[in-house]
Amino acid sequence: METILRYVIIAAVGALASILANQSIAVFNDGLRPVLPEYLEKRMDRKALAATSFAIGFGLVIGYGLPTSIAASIILIHCILLTTDIIGTWCPDTKKGMIASGVIGAVYGVALLFGLQVIIDLFNLLPVNFLGSLGQVSAGITLAFAIFPAVTVALQFGAAKGIIPAVVTLLVRQIVETYGKIALDAEHTISLNKDGMALLAGMIIMLVFAAMDKEGNDQNSNEMLTQIFADKVARIRKYMPVLALMGGLIAAGTSMSIMAGDPISLGLLAEGDRVNAGLTALARAIGFIPLVATTAITTGVYAPAGMTFVFVIGLLIPNPFIALIAGAACICVEILLLNVIAKGLDKFPGIKRCGDNIRTAMSYVIDIALLIGGILAAQAIMPTTGLFIIVAFWCINKCSKKPLVSMAVGPLGAILVGLIANVLFLLSLYTPAA
Known about the structure:
434 residues; mainly alpha; two-stranded parallel ribbon; 76% helix
């Protein structure tokens, strides 16, 4: 029964996300959202829109989404929603096109879930089974992610101030590691997670710094934007029921560990650490508030996962039916609060700028952590040779005319090392350690 439900949810996510993209109601790719008004206002034709969607999304699916999903055996949401953006925009903007996009999206979702399991099963049949070692790809992320608030402060206020949350984060981590076990009685003990507590401490300091930044906003304030683009906000609210259903389905899928919203929470979810996965997803969601709110107000197009709080709900609520209801409610609250959020960002312009810096800081941390994780996995598969292959792959990719995104090199490189190990084994050029 649970297996059937998993396929029903993934099919529904694929179908509805494709329809939302087809009707220009919501798209996942942040780079595509600002382009849609050009199509809606007849300044761009459908072919150009479809080509743009493919150009900015396909590489991330192949080079980033799939390798990360295979490494953790859980689907990274980019694999689904970037592809449904492409499916939706490539199907005609007609009733038949809308139905076609839904059918193709549903088939794709089922194929992705089934295909991921097939790939994992095939890996288990290889003479050198490296699937277990791939789990180390996310090891670096789990350890390094707590530093992103310090990086955010450094980006916004300078490296000197960034040292403050960095030191506090380190101290909290070490204190919790040493004194984090609290005995309730002879049989029961509460163990605090050192990485989660360190992240929480860093986030508190980051938000304090951001709230203290009173530097004036520019003249095109968000409050002014809500007045100028009132029809855009009205358009999003018009589609609130279907957007709520989309958010609920994503929350339900996350609740069942089918999918996750980012590599960090995905890795923690794969380890069964739902609480800290939820905490990291919450940190990411806070960073997306300014981006999603501003692009929604100015374009009239929302994101299928909203401000990504639906992932937090899915991670913290293990019951998919309750998660579905809570996720739907979350999207409704987000949409109804769009104007309020915009006004709040105007009162605290530092927090708005902090949101932009959070995403940049996360990108820095994920880039280096996934690279280190890829090296750890490659070394576990082929000691010393794995490091050589990853470094070679990184450098050659940098020299490529169309390089993969940096964060894809670690996961993809680790898979490459595993495949090379199997080829060398068949050629009697490599013998795995016992």
